[in-house]
Amino acid sequence: MNVGFIGLGHMGMGMAANLLKARHQVTVYNRTHEKARALAARGAKIAGTVSEACQGDAVITMLANDAAVESVVLEFEGVLASLRPGALHVSSSTISVALSGRLNEEHRNYGHRYVAAPVFGRPEAAAAAELTVVAGGEADALEAARPLLAAIGRKVFVIGDVPQAANLVKLSGNFLNGSVIESLGEAFALITKGGIDRQRYLEILASLFNVPAYNIYGALIASGQFEPPGFAAPLGQKDIRLLLAAADTLGVPMPVASLLRDRFLTLIAHGGERLDWSAIGGLAAKDAGVAAA
Amino acid sequence: MNVGFIGLGHMGMGMAANLLKARHQVTVYNRTHEKARALAARGAKIAGTVSEACQGDAVITMLANDAAVESVVLEFEGVLASLRPGALHVSSSTISVALSGRLNEEHRNYGHRYVAAPVFGRPEAAAAAELTVVAGGEADALEAARPLLAAIGRKVFVIGDVPQAANLVKLSGNFLNGSVIESLGEAFALITKGGIDRQRYLEILASLFNVPAYNIYGALIASGQFEPPGFAAPLGQKDIRLLLAAADTLGVPMPVASLLRDRFLTLIAHGGERLDWSAIGGLAAKDAGVAAA
Amino acid sequence: MNVGFIGLGHMGMGMAANLLKARHQVTVYNRTHEKARALAARGAKIAGTVSEACQGDAVITMLANDAAVESVVLEFEGVLASLRPGALHVSSSTISVALSGRLNEEHRNYGHRYVAAPVFGRPEAAAAAELTVVAGGEADALEAARPLLAAIGRKVFVIGDVPQAANLVKLSGNFLNGSVIESLGEAFALITKGGIDRQRYLEILASLFNVPAYNIYGALIASGQFEPPGFAAPLGQKDIRLLLAAADTLGVPMPVASLLRDRFLTLIAHGGERLDWSAIGGLAAKDAGVAAA
Amino acid sequence: MNVGFIGLGHMGMGMAANLLKARHQVTVYNRTHEKARALAARGAKIAGTVSEACQGDAVITMLANDAAVESVVLEFEGVLASLRPGALHVSSSTISVALSGRLNEEHRNYGHRYVAAPVFGRPEAAAAAELTVVAGGEADALEAARPLLAAIGRKVFVIGDVPQAANLVKLSGNFLNGSVIESLGEAFALITKGGIDRQRYLEILASLFNVPAYNIYGALIASGQFEPPGFAAPLGQKDIRLLLAAADTLGVPMPVASLLRDRFLTLIAHGGERLDWSAIGGLAAKDAGVAAA
């Protein structure tokens, strides 16, 4: 497939590389060009503008937040204005449910196809084509997106014909991860003050909850080492904000999400913007007066 | 080993049966005798009193709560008064850190050995000898307990020489399970109001958090079927109370645990005492005005 | 003073009438004209458009929310486009800190004076000129606004030269009132289940907290009668949203505000949009399984 | 009346002095005798033992907590064993609902009368006979207690014939005060980060909530001076524990009380045991990264 790829961050680099591996013709665009050059060596064409990345059958966007997506998609000579009728936009960014709904409407007006396909997984999973993809959109759009999604993910879940439902699932997943961090943080504060060895506790955890979320965040909290960030605190905060905005619109009270909101505010107020988001898992220990690990 | 076993509930039955399978000589005692008779067919000796179950090398207690343990261990002709010097008491009940500490002192005064060895796992795991055991006690007591614990569990974690540390780990584990229920409850409330199919969401969950806690509680919350209880709500409430008591003593604020406390009060105030404890995972949906599944 | 008044709701009617009493020349504008006619009898001039209400020395706006203020002030032929240079805009609406900041900038660009002067008090207090006014703005703007504010309030507090600081104070005040409602709700749930007579408890409250917030909300919660609304639940919800938005911008975690947020979502999800905002004070009793009063 | 008075702390001293002023014959007992001597000069008789203070028509106890009351009332040669049949025990200590219920039963078995009469007010109010008294008990017991209560309080509220209901009201009142502290703490964190002068904000508060709770705690939080304590943090923590215990027994979820519980744990974990309980009102600012006042 002839596909554009916009947004070569930690996640996007791996995803674009996997599209190339799957023998798609990929035209990449990034605000700073160095990253694009790394992919040129693997066969990618480099676009000088957003518009140039939108001349094929499809374009995938993988950007940091709503503002970046609005800028790239909605502004002058952006994706919306550049895609030809019938072409496909796959939005894999973690964005608000509201913006995804708006993109859906706009693309429909332009005669484009639109699939929201946010992904679960850390950069290593993106590099290894082991992402979990949740996709929403009209049947023909999903059909068109299938070979692209297959190239980047281990598993693709179709959530239905409302694209923004996929974004809601993505936000709910990050909420579940955030909840794991918070509850592990409280548990570690407790057992540490109870005189229990943290590494031994980690081993027990691995016996009970042997999945990446518990293993990875448990190890980070046990060590108290939140630098360098795998997923930075301000991004985690952004996702909880988007989650609470969606919950507000849908009328769903979520007390654990409210707690996470407060935790991120506390973390950032104490200089946490350069830490991994799991650093909120260190706040319970701090409240309990536990000395840093 | 010549061992007594006191408390043949859902968990105790399987544990005692596995001790027999491992060719220990087991003398069982239960308040109501029918359950004991079922084990007699497999080779158990039946004790008519607590004291009769305490005549061997060791006795294991697996009882419902602090009150039951106090009654069986501390009262007239109980475990404490009946064990011979040097004999071993393995307490596998989920009890308070404070009571476990007191048992430790009392047994030391009587010249007994004491191991706290609470277990993780549902009744099926107990029957299959697949429990996770967390054990605390003096080295020689742990050494003596080893063949017994090996017979009932898949894995035994030694937490150190302070027995009640094992009870704290057990309570913290139930707290983590309760946290999973609460956060799943909030996530399901959200995605349900967002128009997403619950079964499809369950499949995605299984891709992200493929461990029993998420699979089992996710399925219960998705279906809204909390009867019959696998682990009854009042027992879950008891464990959160014990956790908060330990956290209070240690000086650890645990906001998610406080939320769980309030959830159980709400559930029980609305007739939930006969439901599975995961029914607290239905309260977020109720607050959000979601019709029952 | 020759002053326009835009927004004749429950609050605005009384405020405009008091400006007339203080012998200001008042030109009133309201989206629906009936309310304006009632004031014509008392000497007000009726404006047919927003612009007509902006031809004097000053204009006061008292509108329901950010959207109404944006529409009246910022849109075509609105307040911004209509006021002459040097004229004064007094914004008494409860709006976001962000919008008030934006109004400040826009008015400065146009050469206008701008005072944010939100008010505390219920409609009866507005009618009796007994509002508490919190005013922010440049010294000369405040000086110009003084006779107007004196006419509507019992007391005027000057908060400084940053207008939006006054809006922050207003939101914090509504937060404190909301907190009173929540804590009274929890206390009434407790004493009701404890078998204590609610009216007797109200009398004790009046001995300890003899201020309107406790007296009024206490009586409403004791009776369980939340209709008709004095201050409707969606308005209370809006204010908590604005508060949390300001807290988010400033980086301040506010757990009680987060709880209020969740309470309003629950209330509205159960048909509470027509109730007084103090109906969130009935939710603790509902959670506790207390039958309605 | 011939009355004993046990417990000459900050509150008890003033109360006993006022009984003397009202021309009752007062026999005082305190664990340390110095305080009793101060009252001897005003006409009090000094008892050398609890029992000696229980030889009259009535005895009043004003002690720090459940443990002190259990010791003084229930132990060997305590109040229970010493009062003659028909005599009256007035318990003014802030104790658990459960203990007050137990005292009621025990006194009934001994043929005594029992009134629970906890008081609201700080030591200055006790000295000035301006306490608010909430009294529960059988009609004849209340009748007998009336002249005593009239001597110590400004106002006496009779709550009914179940003594421990008065204790519940007392705990709920301390909860409401604690809630005021928490919400003021959050409001001050917000307005401080918003650049607003704290003293100016205090003035506005006094216009909206002109009662001691807001005035006193507002001033303490605004200044950040929590020493010396008027009411020490461990006592406030104790009362929230007693409240939550009562709420647990009655089945009432109280999320603000849970938050207060966590705040006290955090405060004490950071060395707050010597501060006034309103120091929990400084924690929101700390979380928000506000430098101490």
Would you mind describing this structure in some detail?
4 copies of one chain form a homotetramer. Chain A has 293 residues and is α/β, with parallel strands linked by helices. Chain A has 2 domains: 2-161, NAD(P)-binding Rossmann-like Domain (Rossmann fold), CATH 3.40.50; 168-287, N-(1-d-carboxylethyl)-l-norvaline Dehydrogenase, domain 2. Chain A is built from 13 helices and 9 strands. Chain A has helices at residues 10-21, 34-40, 66-74, 79-82, 97-110, 123-127, 139-152, 163-193, 198-208, 212-223, 233-250, 255-269, 283-287, and strands spanning 2-6, 25-29, 45-46, 58-61, 88-91, 113-116, 119-120, 131-136, 153-160. In chain A, strands 3-2-1-4-5-6 form a 6-stranded parallel sheet, sandwiched between helices. Chain A has a 3-stranded mixed sheet with strand order 7-8-9. In chain A, helix 7 links the parallel strand 8 and strand 9 (153-160). In chain A, helix 9 packs antiparallel against helix 10. The radius of gyration of chain A is 20 Å and the shape is elongated. The model of chain A has no long low-confidence stretch (mean pLDDT 96).
List the helices and strands and how they pair.
The structure is a homotetramer of 293-residue chains.
Chain A: E1 2-6, H1 10-21, E2 25-29, H2 34-40, E3 45-46, E4 58-61, H3 66-74, H4 79-82, E5 88-91, H5 97-110, E6 113-116, E7 119-120, H6 123-127, E8 131-136, H7 139-152, E9 153-160, H8 163-193, H9 198-208, H10 212-223, H11 233-250, H12 255-269, H13 283-287
Parallel strand pairs in A: 1-2, 1-4, 2-3, 4-5, 5-6, 8-9
Antiparallel strand pairs in A: 7-8
Helix pairs in contact in A: 5-8, 8-10, 8-11, 9-10, 11-12
